[in-house]
Structure formats: structure tokens, C-alpha cells
TrEMBL record, chain B:
The modification 4-aspartylphosphate is found at residue 53. This is Response regulator. Transmembrane segments: none annotated. It comes from the Archaea. Residues 6-115 form the Response regulatory domain. The keyword Disulfide bond does not apply. Coiled coil: none annotated. The keyword Transferase does not apply. SUPFAM superfamilies: CheY-like. PROSITE patterns: RESPONSE_REGULATORY. GO terms for biological process: phosphorelay signal transduction system. Keywords: Phosphoprotein.
Length: 366, 189
């Protein structure tokens, strides 16, 4: 009640007027009204004294920070602050008390805070200062905007991908387009053979478009996942990929993974195609010589796909997953990008190394 | 120029150099190469203009360009490529950047212009190079990317300085002819 009197002109004046019973009743009602507003508002409100000791916290702190209000009162404000900000906080409060100089903007600033369970939440905070019983009180009105921040990040990621796609599509189509124009010119000049090559060039452009589309689709967030049997889904992928009589084998105790089965099949399909297209040296063209093995990672947290082919050679492992990177003239360079997109969409990590027999080995950490 | 200018066309796609030969053959003498090593064998003091693909197996066009310059050839070089130009082109010693696909009329126009540039003053050639690089970067990149790049702003400064330096020189020449050249560089992208 006292707090309300200090803070609102309306109540101070009603008291000055002497206070009839009705007025007093109205004052109590108003006070309850404001107390209830502060208590039950959706924004968390925390008030501290000059020593950063928490004097008051409303109900909403439970939702934002995971603490009950009474757990916070009496504690230092730093309990809800990530460690890296703590020293700075005390310093800037001290400076403000001495000089009145504000280190931060007090309105709607974005700061990370520490939840009771240890994760960080992003808050939009407005600071207020008032005096109460001769003491300086500082209050923070805080709104959890973690979700908004995450949405913003996702939007930025999407924009980035869009930019990449745009540049990719425009530039990767330039080469075959030039080849088509050139080949047409040569054909017009009388070389009939050139005419037939046009079909192949057009197919190359079509593959490129299909792969870019697939890349765009596979990169979208994974919806429902279910426990997937790796053996079953990889055998399905093997039968549809053009594996030319190469052999698929399985290691002991394959883990079951939680995945979108269709996308996982696409991941395997692209890895198999990569193995068949790049794993064999062009000299030894016998398809039966290539074996692809799927097995569990040593720690059980994922699986590997390894082949006994020619391996990556001088290829930079970092470049492998880049859009449009290929060492094969007819390749589009999207196969492994699609693999990486699918893994990423599941929240997995994928890496490439050399297999025991010197071939390619991809590890998917789930 | 009494003799026909000599052009060296380099691209790993054989059909592409064949087409360049067909497109340019009536006006220029054309040599072709389908790889970097072959290009370096063909290059000589007689070559006026080199058309150079960037993305080639074994030896990249960028490397061929470097070697051509290292061996002291100061012919005009146009990169003809599907590779998106990044800021690294600022320091590359070429004269013109053509984005694939290029067709007959554009190619003839650029090669014809480059063949003429050989007769002009060095600073004018430098001005041409810088102006064309600016146009190439501006065509490819967003304003905000350009703004934040020192290479770009130093390129613009260089162009302005060269413009001032060559002003008197240009006065002696047929101004309209030169205007045409620079207008074309800016407008074709």
C-alpha cells in the first residue's frame, strides 16, 4: 500500500484530502488492483537495492527463470545472470551510483539471462529507478524473447541459403548454357555430330535443376521422426541407386536411429552414388570390385558408410560438402551437399575421412 | 593495323573454342587451346587478345594468366567464365571479365575493342581495366557488400585518379570514340 502511495499521484492526493471511509476503501481496492497487476503480469519484474540484492520478484519470474519468487528474494541479482556478465554488472552499477552515468541503454535492451536449469534465455529488458523509504530501488521489467530471436536467426539462415541458391543456379547453369550455345554454333557451321551432343548438354542442365530442387527440399526442417532400421532403409536406397553390381555389406550391431525414413533413404542414396561414381579409378572399371559397408560408430552414437575405393585423393575434405563442388565433369556437385543438408536437418553431424582400406568413409553422428 | 589481330582462345570445352573460332574467324586470326599448358605453348608476342576460361582441370585460368604476365606478355586478356567474380579479381592482371554464356555479337564487340586498346596509352588501358572491374563487381554484388569492401573503394579511387590523369590525353584523341568504349564497358553487364 505504501509503495502504491509513493508511486501514484492519484492516491497521494486522496490521502491528503483526509480520507473518508469510502475513499480509504477505494484506495485499498486500487492498491490491490495495482499489486495484482504487477504480480500477475506476463512480464517478469525484479527489483534490487544498491547492492544488487533482490527485494522483490513477481510471479512471472517462475515462467521466465524457473525460480519461485521467494527463491529469488534475498539473493544477489547475479543468480539470474550468465557468469561472463557478473563482474561487469557490479562495476557498472557502482559507476552509475557514483556518477549517474549509464553504461547501457535502459529501454528495451536485449540481454541474455540464466535460467535455473542452466540454459540461457534472451530477454528484452527495461530498467526503472525509483526511491522507496529513502533507498534507491532498481527494477527490471523483462520479457523472454528467445523464441523471437530464434525465429530471426532461422530467417537469416534461410536468407543466406536463398542467396547461395540464387548464385548457384545462375552460375552453375552458365557453363552448360555456354556449351549449348557453342555446340549449336558448331552444328550450324556444318558439324552434324555436334547436334547430337546437345542432348547430353540439355540432360546435364536438367540434372542440375533437379538436384537444386532436391537440395532445397532436403534442407527443410525435419518434421516427425520415427525409429528407423538402418539396414532396411539402406537396402531400399541401394536397390534404387545405380550401384552397378557393387556390393553392400553391414557391420555388427547397427544402431536404430530416430529419423525421417524418406530423407534417410535419400541420404544413403546420395552416399552410394558418390561411392560408385568416385570410388572406382577409371582404369579399373569393374564394378564388382567396390564394396560399401555400413556400420556403427565405435561409441554407438551414429553410423558410418565406408567404401574400399580410391578415396578422396587430393580433395580437400572441407570442400566435399560444398554446393556445386565436383571432380567429375558430368557431375552436378550436389550429391554430398544434399547429404549434408539431410544430416543437418536431423541435427546430426557428418564428416568425411579415409576408410581402413584407403577408400572414402563418411561418419554420421546422430 | 594492317594485319588481322591474333586471338588465343582457351577453354577446356572443345566446342566452346571451336565456336569462338567460328564467331571471330572472319575478322581475326584465331588460335585455340583446350588446356593451360597448351595455352602457354601457343602464347607469343604476336598474340593481341587472349580469351581465357577460369575453371579448367589441371591448370586454372587464373594460373595461366599469372604465367602469361610473369613471362612478360602484355597482351589484352579477357576472362570468359561461369565463375562468379569475387573481390579477388581486383588484383588479377586481366583487362575484361565476360560472364558466360557469351554469344557471337558480344564476343566480337569485346575482342574488337580489346584489340584496339593495344594501341592506346598505358594509363588509358589501366583506366579501361579498372572501369570494367568496377562494372563487373557492381553487376554481381549487392551495394552493402561493395560498401564494406576496401578493395572496391580503392578501385573507385584509382579510377577517379586515372580519369583526372588521362583527361588531357583524351582531349587529344577522338573523344567520342573513347566515350563509346567506356560507355560499352558500363552498359553491357
Amino acid at each position: 500500500m505504501q509503495m502504491a502511495r509513493k508511486r501514484t499521484g492519484k492516491m497521494a492526493s486522496s490521502e491528503e484530502m483526509g480520507g473518508s471511509a469510502a475513499e480509504l476503501e477505494s484506495l485499498v481496492r486500487d492498491t490491490d488492483f495495482f499489486r495484482s497487476l504487477v504480480e500477475n503480469g506476463s512480464d517478469a519484474i525484479v527489483s534490487i537495492d544498491e547492492n544488487s540484492t533482490i527485494l522483490y520478484a513477481n510471479q512471472a519470474v517462475e515462467r521466465v527463470f524457473g525460480y519461485e519468487p521467494e527463491e529469488l528474494v534475498g539473493e544477489k541479482l547475479t543468480v539470474i545472470m550468465p557468469e561472463r556478465f557478473q563482474a561487469d554488472h557490479f562495476e557498472s552499477v557502482q559507476r552509475y551510483l557514483e556518477t549517474g552515468e549509464r553504461q547501457l541503454d535502459w529501454n528495451n535492451i536485449r540481454l541474455p539471462a540464466l535460467h535455473k536449469d542452466g540454459h540461457e534465455v534472451t530477454l528484452s529488458i527495461t530498467f526503472e529507478e525509483h526511491s522507496y523509504e529513502g533507498k534507491r530501488i532498481f527494477s527490471g521489467i523483462m520479457r523472454d524473447i528467445s523464441e523471437r530471436v530464434e525465429q530471426q536467426r532461422e530467417l537469416e539462415r534461410q536468407n543466406e541459403r536463398l542467396e547461395q541458391f540464387a548464385s548457384l543456379v545462375s552460375h552453375d547453369l552458365r557453363d552448360p548454357l555456354q556449351a549449348a550455345k557453342a555446340t549449336t554454333a558448331v552444328a550450324k557451321a556444318g558439324d552434324e555430330e555436334a547436334l547430337e551432343e546437345l542432348d547430353e548438354i540439355h540432360d546435364r542442365m536438367e540434372r542440375l535443376i533437379e538436384d537444386v530442387l532436391s537440395l532445397a527440399k532436403q534442407g527443410q526442417a525435419v518434421g516427425e521422426t520415427e525409429p528407423v532400421d538402418l539396414r532396411e532403409v539402406s537396402e531400399r536406397a541401394w536397390s534404387t541407386a545405380d550401384t552397378d553390381g557393387a556390393t553392400l555389406t553391414f557391420g555388427e550391431s547397427l544402431p536404430t536411429v530416430s529419423a525421417d525414413p524418406e530423407r534417410l533413404e535419400a541420404l544413403f542414396g546420395n552416399l552410394f552414388r558418390n561411392a560408385v561414381e568416385h570410388g572406382r579409378s577409371s582404369a579399373a572399371d569393374d564394378p564388382a570390385t567396390l564394396t560399401v559397408e555400413i556400420g556403427p560408430l565405435a561409441d554407438g552414437e551414429g553410423f558410418y558408410v565406408a567404401d574400399d575405393g580410391t578415396g578422396f585423393g587430393d580433395t580437400d575434405a572441407d570442400q566435399l560438402f560444398e554446393y556445386g563442388y565436383t571432380t567429375n565433369e558430368d557431375g552436378t556437385g550436389f550429391g554430398l551437399s544434399i547429404v549434408a543438408e539431410i544430416a543437418e536437418a536431423h541435427g546430426w553431424e557428418i564428416s568425411a575421412t579415409e576408410s581402413a582400406s584407403g577408400g572414402a568413409r563418411f561418419e554420421v553422428r546422430t | 593495323m594492317s594485319e588481322r589481330p591474333l586471338v588465343l582462345a582457351v577453354d577446356d570445352e572443345e566446342r566452346v573454342v571451336q565456336a569462338f573460332d567460328i564467331w571471330l574467324g572472319d575478322e581475326f586470326e584465331v588460335l585455340t587451346a583446350t588446356g593451360g599448358a597448351e595455352a602457354l605453348e601457343q602464347i607469343s608476342d604476336e598474340v593481341d587478345v587472349v580469351l581465357l576460361d577460369r575453371h579448367m582441370p589441371e591448370m586454372s585460368g587464373d594460373e595461366v594468366l599469372e604465367r602469361i604476365r610473369a613471362e612478360g606478355y602484355d597482351c589484352r586478356v579477357a576472362m570468359v567464365t561461369a565463375v562468379a567474380p569475387e573481390f579477388e579479381i581486383v588484383e588479377m592482371p586481366f583487362d575484361h571479365y565476360i560472364s558466360k554464356p557469351v554469344d557471337e555479337s558480344e564476343l566480337r564487340e569485346v575482342v574488337g575493342r580489346l584489340a584496339e586498346m593495344g594501341a592506346y596509352d598505358q594509363r588509358l588501358n589501366e583506366l579501361y581495366r579498372v572501369t570494367q572491374k568496377i562494372a563487373t563487381l557492381e553487376a554481381e554484388m549487392t551495394d552493402s557488400r561493395l560498401e564494406h569492401h576496401e578493395e572496391y573503394s580503392s578501385l573507385v579511387e584509382r579510377r577517379d585518379r586515372l580519369r583526372a590523369e588521362t583527361h588531357d590525353l583524351v582531349g587529344e584523341m577522338e573523344r567520342s570514340e573513347l566515350d563509346d568504349v567506356f560507355e560499352m564497358i558500363g552498359s553491357e553487364q
